[in-house]
Amino acid sequence: MTLSPSTRLGPYEVIAPLGAGGMGEVYRARDSRLGREVAIKVLPAAFSQDADRLRRFEQEARAVGMLNHPNILIVHDIGTHDGSPYIVSELLDGETLRARLNSGALTVRKAADYAQQMACGLQVAHEKGVVHRDLKPENLFITQDGRLKILDFGLAKLKPPQSGEEVLTDAPTQGVNTEPGMVMGTMGYMSPEQVRGQTADHRADIFAFGVVLYEMLCGRRAFAGGTAVEVMNAILKDEPAELSAINLHVPPTFERLVRRCLEKRPEERFQSAGDIGFAVEAFSAPSGSHAPTAVAEVSGTGAASSRWTPAGWRERLVWVAITVLLAIIALVLFYVRRPAEEPRAIRFSISPPGNGVFMTAKDIPYAVAISPDGRRLALIVATEGKTQLWVRSLNGLTMQPLPGTEGAATPFWSPDGRYIGFSAEGKLKKIEATGGPPQILCDTPQGGAPATWNRDGIILFSSPSGIFRVSADGGDAAPVTKLNQSQGEAPPMWPYFLPDGRHFLFLLVHAKKDGGADNDLCVGSLDSQETKLLMHGGSRMAYAPPGYLLYVRDGTLLAHPFDVQALRLTGNPFPVAEQLSYFQPTGDADYSISENGVLAYQAGVTLSRLVWVNRDGAETGAVGAPGNYRWLRLSPDGQRLIVSVDEMRTGTSDLWIYELSRGTPTRFTFEPGVENEAIWSPDGRKIAFGSDRGGPPSLQLKALNDSSLVERLTNTIGWVQRPYDWSPDGEWIIYGGGEAKTGNDLWFLPMTGERKPTPFLRTNFNEVEARFSPDGHWVVYVSDESGRPEVYVRSFQGAAGKWKVSNGGGEYPRWRGKELFYLAPDNKLMAVPVKIGSAFEAGNPAVRFRLSAVLRDYDVSADGQRFILNVHAAEAVSLPMTVVVNWMANVKP
Fold first, then answer.
1. Are residues 158 and 78 in the same domain?
2. How far apart, in whole angstroms, are the C-alpha atoms of residue 367 and residue 591?
3. Is 102 in the same domain as 68?
4. Which of 165-179, 238-252, 278-292, 854-868 is predicted with the least confidence, judged by mean pLDDT?
5. How does residue 685 score in pLDDT terms, banded at 50, 70 and 90?
6. What does the alpha-carbon distance between residue 168 and residue 156 come to, in Å, rounded to a whole number?
7. Which of 77, 134, 363, 725 is catalytic?
8. Left, alpha or beta for 864 (phi > 0: left; psi -120 to 50: alpha)?
9. In this model, does residue 754 exceed pLDDT 60?
């Protein structure tokens, strides 16, 4: 099937063809929902004739779509068009490994780099139970920045088995340019068990890995033959030629690695791709030459061998001395003339523990920090809905949780690597990296306080009031910077000490009138109130010796040459890694750098699911496909759902509306920047939402029947405003906002008259998540006045007093009828019976169900019998953490 430009496949519009092969045709297309370009592979219609086989393929394709690893092609969607299945994936720029190998063998260093990346991708896939079965250079893609991507997971299952064989090639057979008579195609990459028609598990991919690596190192196939039968016989019986005999630069350690992959019996190969990754990582360079050794052979005949006269002995000593001297000269010449070894970057991935999930910049402030010596990682991991600080030694295979760090965010290390600092429950804390009770240093805002620690025992952290300093032993915090709200500045964020321990980097965010924000990268000092602007644009920064600033722009991690003495940028930035987890409005990004050149970062998309569950927590349905969803809200009639959808590349977001009866989304906002946290008017005709359109973050209003008119409801300087709820009578909107002195407060906005906001709760604590009761007489909200988030109820107008509803902590309160729901710290959804009217009464909280995934948001149906949850897609968010040792060797300034 050939598709013409402008052909639509659901929400995808074809732009142009990209190529064709045995498994179908590939097109460049545009996703009209998210405004991004994608690649669509349309498969032959014959593959859809076997319904059972197509069902199994769709099941595996969905599993692959959940992997989201930097070394695996990201699958966005699958569907059918005129009877032909199609797959929607990310659009790549580069070439296949086959095209790269057409020019001959790769260098050992480059082959090692690609092998490491291939092993990382296979490891994550195998851990999820997904086996490729058709690994070959045609299915390995090299992007412009040198990243290897594994393509076409699961496609081998589409081809019907022949002669008892489970998987065969999807590529046409063709001759090899460098080896006449040798057959191309998957047949040359099949494992012995596949050739025999036996069931193949993940170790078949390990065999194919060895075949591909062999070809990368020597430029020709491991198993040759003039016919398919000869190739299969070679796989079953023959050993490939010695690598070192073809390529003298291949070290013995690498040859042993390849041989281990190519063992005929699966149980004699490497048993996991992770094992291969560690083996490749351990490989350093071709082994050094051994010194020449003189071996004397003494024959049993002849006068010289039988005469042990003093003269003969002296003659022997002379010859031995000459031999040794020549050996020493040869060694000296070898080491003097030997070219200096190129530094190598070693890249590997670390997966979350068990069913855990690495948190990302879209969920909490940055969640990864590497120790100054580059030996250990501090990570925020979510397990069973609970976030906690974990530590992983890069020399080990496991990571350990640190008890007492529940709810942790923004980890940072002490300069000596003994302590890890973090924020949790409105406190800045520290804990020994080996474990022990955490120590409270000072109060901080809820939600995380990014911090940095110098060698003089001073910690800087950012808050809504600016950047503060506190002793590493704890005590009162003192301001370091001043907030210039008159210029539209948000509070300075992301402090990071430079090597002198006196100057520090930080970020200033200025809202733009047309939406979005301008970020200024600046330098401050402990010794002065003066600051210096480095550049416009970017994210939180880090200094990387010997002289670079790292920051993220449009999802790409950049390194910019930096004169640390003159405190100025020099030269031009160059890319280090792509598709980082990144949140543009605040400049947050998930990466960390050590003092000795070890880089850790998280790349990929963290997906979530919109699912319906009943009162027992059992899933009863889903809305749409997994996506980058944030907040959600059901319409008053329960027929529609509005959600915020993030765009990973730009770090921005827009609002989409789902018609629940059809499950189809329609885009509601189109402005640059961020639109989120939407609420419906009681009649369902208007939507108020938070937006940075037209200036600082504020409340905006838009009617459903008028897509062009957007009305600004509030004005603010330097503080995010978030709409929480609309009163049942339509007269009031309650929203969150604040100022440096009081933190986040609750405000009322009348929807008639002058619309002048008035404070509802303005205290020295943070109040958030406010909702009106069904009769409009009461307001439920969350406050940290007790030292942790708790759920409270107050009268909207009239009677004074307040009631604490939660017991032991609570967030996400929701009214429905005669019940109040909230989420407890242990991820249990609690239900509280209430009586409302002229007085308020609350019963004891009871557990409704426990969530097994991290909750982003939820809402409750009008009858209180169903819950719509926005939860992490467990299969999709286990994004690994990528670690690069000697990161500078892997990039091109």
1. no
2. 8
3. no
4. 165-179
5. very high
6. 7
7. 134
8. left
9. yes
- Helix and strand numbers (H, E) in the chain are 11, 62
Q: Does 615 fall in a domain?
A: no
Whether 51 and 183 map to the same domain: the answer is no
What's the rounded mean pLDDT across residues 522-536? 90
Q: Both tokens of residue 340?
A: 């200096």
CA 764 from centroid of its chain's CA atoms: 36
Same domain, 635 and 716: yes
For the four alpha carbons of 10, 16, 18 and 22, in that order, the dihedral sign comes to positive
Torsion of CA 62, 67, 70, 76, to 10 degrees: 30
Structure-token pair, residue 76: 């966005």
Contact (CB, 8 A) for 772 and 796: yes
- Tell me: do 137 and 259 sit in the same domain: yes
Q: Per the domain annotation, does 350 fall within a domain?
A: no
Instruction: State whether 678 and 784 are in the same domain.
Output: yes
Lowest mean pLDDT among 204-213, 313-322, 762-771: 313-322
How many structural domains comprise the chain?
Answer: 4
* Cβ atoms of residues 481 and 525 within 8 Å: no
| 8 A C-beta contact, residue 155 and residue 170 | yes
Final residue of a domain: which of 91, 117, 148?
Answer: 91
Say which residues have a Cβ less than 8 Å from residue 864's Cβ, sequence separation at least 6.
615, 816, 817, 819
Would 101 be classed as within a structural domain? Answer: yes
- Rounded CA separation 718/490 (Å): 4
750 token code pair: 């009348």
DSSP assignment, residue 706? Answer: -
Determine the longest span between alpha carbons in the chain, in angstroms.
125
Whether the CB-CB separation of 101 and 137 falls below 8 Å is answered with yes
Angle ∠(9,582,125) on CA atoms, nearest 5: 60
Residue 23's nearest CA partner among 85, 88, 102, 96 is: 85
Placement of tokens 């990929």 in the chain? 604
pLDDT 10s digits, 610-649: 999 999 999 999 998 888 888 899 999 999 999 998 775 5
Same domain as 108, residue 211: yes
| Mean pLDDT for the stretch of residues 271-289 | 67
Return the closest-CA partner of residue 377 out of 429, 427, 412: 412
How many Cα atoms sit within 13 Å of 851 on the Cβ side?
30
**Residue 134 falls in the annotated catalytic set:** yes
Q: What is the mean pLDDT of residues 777-793?
A: 90
The one-letter amino acid code at 175 reads G
- Domain boundary residue among 267, 287, 307? 287
CA nearest neighbour of 221 among 193, 238, 196, 240: 240
DSSP per-residue codes, 608-621: EEEEEEETT--EEE
DSSP-assigned letter for residue 586: T
To 10 degrees, what angle do helices 252-261 and 273-282 make? 170
Element (H, E) at 884: strand 881-885
Q: For the domain that residue 650 is a member of, what is the CATH number? A: 2.120.10.30
pLDDT at 222 over 70: yes
Contact between 449 and 428 (Cβ < 8 Å): yes
pTM over 0.70: no
Contacts of 707 by beta carbon, 8 Å cutoff, 6+ apart: none
The answer to whether position 326 is within a domain reads no
At 450, which amino acid appears?
Answer: P
Strand ranges across the sheet with 528-536: 493-497, 503-511, 517-525, 528-536
Domain range holding 685?
624-810+855-870
Tokens at 268, concatenated: 């004699």
pLDDT in tens, 704-730: 887 667 888 887 655 678 899 999 999
Residues 215, 246, single domain; the answer is yes
Higher pLDDT, 173 or 273: 273
The CATH number of the domain holding residue 42 is: 3.30.200.20
